[in-house]
Amino acid sequence: MRLEQKVIIVTGSCTGIGKAIAKRCVAEGARVVIHGLEPELGQEVVDELGTANAVLHIEDLAVEGVAQRLVDRAVQSFGRLDAVVNNAALVASSNIHTTDLAFFRHILEVNTLAPFALIQAALPFLKENRGCVLNIGSVNGWSGEPDLMAYSVSKGALMTLTRNLGDTLHREDGVRVNQINPGWVLTENEARRKHEHGMPVDWYKDISPVFAPSGRIIWPDELAAAAIYWLADESGPISGQIVDLEQYPLIGRNPPKN
């Protein structure tokens, strides 16, 4: 039980990576706040984990005051707060020609400012318990795809936030802040998005080795396993780190020509 008695908020945990992380946290002894925008799906997760281990909070992260309400939900339900997983993100196609300022601001609000606000609201409790923050970024944060411009910028900003607070909060308050950057992951939303873009329902069964040398893309459970290290005490004094979780190197990669 690597997370025994810890209380963890996992944003965007009604589906996908967040759901997998929340389930793995409970399996490791933690209690969790499930968060998202889908009440039915969120309740299914709570029912699976049990009401002694999980509570549900449905609210858009762009709404004023949501960070404090998430923290209050955790503390009122379980009496403490040990960690925050900033997983929720708005993934939307955009490029220089299709992005207006209102759209860009909304992406930044959800993907960058909301994680900051939640860390800020949670800090008194994280400081008390020498807790930690795990931000879930994206390999797109290093540059990104042409049609994921605003999303990629928001994840690049999240990396800078992680490094900045990972230094400051660790020295001043004993709170570690780290980040994992997933590559291409087979979540429910990703499967649906690609199908909506014209790909067959089972598109993920035939992925080019350029994008998936192993023959498949990453599963959410594999990211959840990696997340536990950063949330557990065994990661010790490590803070301010960004770790890419992809199946090939990003910088200087030479993909096969065939």
Give your account of this protein's structure.
This protein is α/β, with parallel strands linked by helices and 258 residues long. It has a single domain (7-183, 218-245), classed as NAD(P)-binding Rossmann-like Domain (Rossmann fold). The chain contains 7 helices and 7 strands. The chain has helices at 16-27, 39-49, 66-78, 101-129, 149-173, 188-196, 220-231, and strands at residues 7-10, 31-36, 54-58, 83-86, 132-136, 176-182, 242-245. Strands 3-2-1-4-5-6-7 form a 7-stranded parallel sheet, with helices on both faces. Helix 2 links the parallel strand 2 (31-36) and strand 3. The longest helix is centred in the middle third of the chain and has 29 residues, at 101-129. The relative contact order is 0.14. It comes from Larkinella rosea. Pfam families: adh_short.
